[in-house]
Specification:
The structure holds two protein chains of two kinds.
Chain A lengths: L2 E7 L2 E7 L5 H9 L17 E4 L2 E4 L12 E3 L8 H12 L9 H14 L5 H8 L9 H13 L4
Parallel strand pairs in A: 1-5
Antiparallel strand pairs in A: 1-2, 3-4, 3-5
Chain B lengths: L1 H10 L2 H25 L35 H11 L2 H4 L13 E4 L2 E4 L16 H10 L14 H4 L4 H11 L13 E2 L8 H9 L13 H13 L3 H4 L17 E3 L2 E3 L15 H10 L10 H9 L6 H11 L30 H15 L25 H9 L1 E5 L2 E5 L8 H15 L8 H10 L3
Chain lengths: 156, 459
């Protein structure tokens, strides 16, 4: 069974005809072609697939497309258009956070959502928001430093 | 007579007099206790009204299959009834062939296993005559006369009609035979004495058959037949007494079975389901979730997947009508459920053990959020769920260990099983954090409790 959904992604409306229980991640990558969001574990345990749904960080690998509705979806391709997203990206570049890069779309999405909620996070706030984003290269120290740099506004 | 008894008593020495009095008192107490245990009311005795033989009930027949299947063949009717009786859940081992048995019941005094009920001649029910099959299902007597343990719910199935049981048999005989001998029970003395089960059955599971209540509606009676004879709700939801008989004085008040808490499903508004609407209950039975009420997992999740969700809608309505007629009894659970937790990780209840929060923020928060309101699906909402408001944290521990898998309106929603990834210490810390943050009262579960709960659930 397929349904047609009008998804608002990065400010554009995309009409997609997919099974209602297809995870949003598959629609983003395989139907629309926005491949910046990554598939990691598929069970909402690694954070690689994080996107924003109405500003909240959500694991798109388990989010049924039918649950998105009218809510605005922002992906890694669109996050640079937001104030926090732009700051995070500049800080990431300034500190060379990325190693292999596979998890980094998710890291940046979670970090941008954190700064939108908590403009000056301390270590405990960063842990609370970022612990569910796993980095197998172990770039956690640079991620933490870059979030603080982005919060300070000095990277731009 | 009286005089001689008195003089007999006076001739005893002082010590013997005291012993005789103590002996007599002990006998009276024992007899009273036995009468109390044996005199447990029947499953439907709570309802006023005259009980009549099935043939004398003037309304629609409460037994058998729903109207849509009335014209169906014996096997198809048997399949429906086997689902309604939820045979498959216990008669299937972990990862095993359905109905081939081998599921372990871990009891305080040993382990017993469900049997193979595929039609295999040697290890299944292939050689059972109709009379032998009826004896096993209704009275707990095996093919060779051996007493079955009441993990087989013959206390409940005894209410099933012969016709319905033989329809189930006809369905089971169409399955592929599987050669699968049941593992030997491992029980301590005296529980390994199977002949004792005949005494137990005679006292606590007398096979009386289903007697409709003439003063209740056809829907209520159908619901009673579904709940008591088939779905056997009371086997988990009603506490058992000292001798493991279902204690209907506390009918549906809630109990722990197979390491999970089966909650109070009486009409008590605070600790039961008295404030659940009919729509809430129908939603829960058909999907395993009702908005703001939590999500079924464990044995209730299985009952929903394999049984309740597959019933005819009118049968679910009848079940709900019946269950809602069971009188309120309050349980020792918090009387009010906690509201949503604060959005910030800094606010809300803390536990002494920081490990719980560390685990929650790494593995749980992406779906359950710091508030407890599910980010991916309402099925992941912890707020309002009885499990997180239960200071024993029994079901929280089990859900963490075994995860959950539900078919919701929008698709399958899964929670991974963390039992293999986390130690008992970690699971205890996490469960204590979850109840402290999202529940009405924090739990104090220990590593040992978690190990015990894993064992009870057969893990």
């Amino acid at each position: 069974m397929q349904d047609t959904f009008r998804l608002r992604i990065n400010g554009e409306v995309h009409a997609v005809t997919v099974p209602p229980d297809m995870p949003l991640l598959w629609v983003l990558r395989d139907v629309i072609g926005l491949t910046g969001t990554k598939f990691g574990c598929g069970i909402a345990q690694c954070g690689a697939c994080t996107v924003h749904v109405d500003g909240r960080p959500v694991r798109s690998c388990l989010l049924p497309t039918s649950a998105v509705g009218e809510q605005a979806v922002t992906t890694i391709e669109g996050i640079g258009e937001t104030k926090e997203g732009a700051r995070v990206q500049m800080a990431w570049l300034a500190l060379e956070v990325i190693q292999c890069g596979y998890c980094q779309s998710g890291q940046i999405m979670s970090a941008a959502a954190l700064l939108a909620q908590t403009p000056a996070p301390d270590d405990a706030d960063i842990d609370a928001a970022m612990a569910g984003n796993i980095c197998r290269c172990g770039t956690y120290l640079r991620i933490r430093a870059a979030i603080k740099l982005a919060a300070s506004g000095d990277a731009a | 007579m009286m005089r001689s008894a008195v003089s007999w008593f006076e001739r005893l020495g002082r010590t013997r007099q005291i012993l005789a009095i103590a002996g007599a008192a002990a006998l009276v107490v024992l007899l009273a206790a036995a009468a109390w245990l044996v005199g447990v009311p029947g499953a439907m005795d709570f309802a006023d009204g005259r009980k009549v033989a099935l043939a004398d009930y003037p309304g629609a027949d409460p037994t058998g299959v729903p109207a849509a299947l009335a014209g169906a063949g014996l096997v198809e009717r048997g399949e429906y009834l086997a689902r309604a009786a939820d045979c498959v859940v216990c008669h299937t081992g972990p990862g095993g062939v359905p109905y081939a048995g081998g599921f372990a019941f871990t009891l305080p005094f040993g382990t017993i296993y469900s049997t193979n009920i595929t039609p295999d001649e040697e290890t299944g029910i292939g050689q059972y005559t109709d009379a032998q099959f009826l004896a096993a299902v209704q009275r707990g007597v095996g093919r060779h006369g051996e007493g079955l343990y009441p993990a087989m719910p013959y206390t409940s199935y005894g209410y099933m009609t012969d016709a319905d049981i033989l329809a189930i048999k006809a369905y089971l005989l169409t399955l592929e035979p599987v050669r699968a001998p049941s593992p030997e029970a491992r029980l301590a003395f005296p529980f390994n004495q199977r002949w004792l089960m005949h005494v137990w059955s005679a006292m606590f599971a007398p096979h009386k058959g289903f007697m409709p209540n003439a003063e209740k509606s056809a829907e209520w009676n159908r619901g009673a037949y579904l709940a008591e004879a088939l779905a056997h709700c009371g086997e988990c939801h009603t506490p058992r007494n000292l001798v493991f008989a279902i204690d209907n004085r506390a009918k549906f008040k809630g109990a722990v079975a197979a390491g999970w808490r089966a909650y109070n499903i009486t009409q008590d508004r605070k600790t039961g389901i008295g404030d659940w609407s009919e729509a809430d209950l129908l939603s829960y039975l058909s999907t395993g979730h009702a908005p703001g009420r939590g999500t079924a997992s464990g044995p209730m999740g299985e009952a929903i997947d394999e049984s309740f969700s597959l019933l005819a809608p009118e049968d679910r309505r009848a079940l709900v009508a019946y269950v809602r007629s069971v009188p309120a009894k309050s349980s020792a659970l918090p009387a009010s459920l906690a509201p949503a937790a604060p959005a910030s990780h800094r606010l809300g209840a803390e536990t002494a053990d920081a490990l719980g929060k560390t685990l929650f923020e790494g593995a749980c928060v992406s779906c359950h959020a710091w508030t407890g309101e599910g980010t991916l699906s309402p099925l992941a909402t912890l707020t309002g769920a009885r499990a997180v408001n239960d200071p024993s944290a029994i079901n929280v521990v089990q859900a963490i260990v075994s995860g959950d898998h539900r078919a919701a309106a929008g698709g399958i929603i899964s929670m991974p099983a963390f039992g293999g990834a986390y130690s008992d210490t970690e699971i205890a810390a996490l469960a204590n954090y979850v109840t402290a943050r999202f529940g009405a009262a924090p739990s104090r579960v220990t590593e040992k409790d978690v190990a015990s709960l894993r064992r009870q659930a057969g893990g």
